[in-house]
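Continuing the batch. This is chain 6 of the set; chains 1 through 5 are on the previous pages. Same settings as before, nothing changed between runs. Recording input and output for traceability.
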Amino acid sequence: MFRRTLIRAMFLAVLIASAVCCGGFLAFRAAVLPQNGLTILLVFIFSVVIGMLVAVKFALHIEKQVRKTTRQMVTFLEGIQKNTELNPVQNVPDLTLPNQEQIKRLLTRIYLKRKEARAESARAAEMLDNMSEGLVALDHNMNILIMNKQSAYFFDSEDENLRGQNLLRLTRLPRLLQSVSATIKTGKSDRLDWEDDVRGMIMQISVSAVKSLHHKEENGVILLITDVTAVRRMEKIRSEFVANASHELKTPLTAIRGFVELMETDIITDPDQIKDYLHRIHKETERMIELISDILHLSELEAVNMDTGYTTVSMKIIAQRAAESVALIAEKQNIRLHIEGD
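Output for chain 6:
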């Protein structure tokens, strides 16, 4: 397009210069010298030469402007590519090319689209870096496409930007590497727990497959890392509590069964002793009710997740209740229980 425009400009300059020079010279010759064929031919040749010189100079000027405009366009597009802050009004070059208004509009549109894409990318990066979970996106070769700051913290990585690097630069956990490799091949999701003994943290890693747009036969992978330390500790506490509660419930039930068995065999005939056993059965039953109430109360505390404050308790009463609950077993083993304290 540039060459065609240049040729047209040169041709037009030759015609105009030739016409002007020829007309002027002919007028001059007509006024001074008699006209003949040789004179007209000489005037025509002279006019053509003058026109060509003017055309060459004009063409060189146009070429200089075109080169300047081209350099400006290259600089402008390189600035967009390098994410340089540009003002579309000040930085779009003044064009001396065909369809320059359309080209200017196109360059301005490219700049605005690029600026919009950069803003969207910055917002997405800010959202990822403010997530409480770690997020890592991998391609089918286990190369890192996206990672946020939290994922670097979870894997204890000093480098927060490993994009383009292999997953091995971030972690070398054998179980995780096997899971990622299997997910890439099969497309099946996986989930695993990883305990960091050094920092005392427990992380849950979800491995999810993502269909690739470029490699339809291969899968990408999304890793979502969540800190489940508090959850796992709560589950452990709950498990231990259930075991302890089961043991605590078993103790009064054993005592009640022992008292009932003694009473059913008619070995105990003393009314006062029977009354004492019934009193103990009643106390053990109340103790079971208190244990069940404590279990329900703890469940309510977990549900509301709040501190209800402190309560003063008597350790002597607790010790007496404990002694009463095992009194029958102690008596069979010839063990005497004695409580002291205030």
